[in-house]
Amino acid sequence: MAIEVRIPTILRNLTDGAKSVEGKGATLDELFTDLDARHAGLRDRLVDDKGLRRFVNVYLNDEDVRFLGGLETQVADGDSVTILPAVAGG
Question: The organism sits in which domain of life (predicted)?
């Protein structure tokens, strides 16, 4: 098994149009590094030198990872990660 990562429309150009991809790793940081090896540029869109980018929301099994440990959040086979860009408007 692997970890399913749901990709938002705005980032699908990096995954050849795939709505979801699979990856592996023990932490969210390792997962993003693994994904970047196959989908170059994806990690840079999600992470900066301070951690998760401000306008990117990441959920592990429907829980916001910012409250679980950020990039150090533990992940396991069978987990589901959802990436959502923050939306603002008026």
Answer: Bacteria
User: pLDDT of 12-66, one tens digit each?
Assistant: 999 999 999 999 999 999 999 999 999 999 999 999 999 998 889 999 999 999 9
Q: What is the CA radius of gyration of the chain?
A: 12
- Report the Cα 66 to chain-centroid distance in Å: 12
Secondary structure of the chain as H, E, C letters = CCEEEECCHHHHHHCCCCCEEEECCCEHHHHHHHHHHHCCCHHHHHEECCEECCCEEEEECCEEHHHCCHHHCECCCCCEEEEEECCCCC
Tokens 């900066």 locate to: 48
Domains of the chain: 3-85 (3.10.20.30)
pLDDT at 30: 95
pLDDT of 44: 93
